[in-house]
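User: I'm writing a tutorial on reading structure tokens. Could you give me a worked example: one chain, its sequence, then its tokens, then a sentence or two explaining what the tokens reveal?
Assistant: Sure. Here is the example chain.
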Amino acid sequence: MSSAEPSHILTDIEGTTTAIAFVHRTLFPHAAAALEDFLARHGAEAEVAAILADVPGPDRLATLRGWMARDAKETPLKALQGLIWRRGYADGALRGHLWPDVPERLRAWHAAGRRLAVYSSGSEEAQRLLFRHSEAGDLEPLFDGFFDTRMGPKREAASYTRIAQAWSAAPGRILFLSDVAEELDAARTAGLRTCQLVRPEDGTQPSGRHPEAADFTEVARLFP
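And here are its predicted structure tokens:
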């Protein structure tokens, strides 16, 4: 691997490794349907209680429902969804969707010595679960790290600077993959290399501001 090639690959999930429909038609509805029962059964447990303590307002359930309705990128909501999904994956109700090109390419990059990490608005827990219980088997060990909104908003350059520092990587050696142009803009401002995933199945519109690939196989051709 030459010094000009990306040594670290940072990937988004929704619209990049995974169909947008899986998140919105499977994961979100599952969490919404299970919310009340989950809180009734586990709300007093330390892990859940710590999350609920960060939910503002006198009616926490109403706040959570409001966040869900707006798909708000609120860290307590994402953490709670992650816990609900953990149970769903464990009992077999959920399996993590990945586009067919993704597992093969992740394994190939890992075997070639490239370091892999995820940056998603979903919680670290949710990220790990999706790859651990994926349709292609357990891919969690391929990754160095799982970064979520604790690094900051995905459309702010400072978030990518923090990730590079946490990963002990030079920004210019990191390739960030996402379907969202504004996220890629922020990453590029922080010095990362970028590639927009434009998957026809997800209806992604190319921005014209970044290199573009229809799948991970094409990413590998663009960044050998």
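What the tokens reveal: The CA atoms of residues 109 and 204 lie 24 Å apart. The mean pLDDT is 95.
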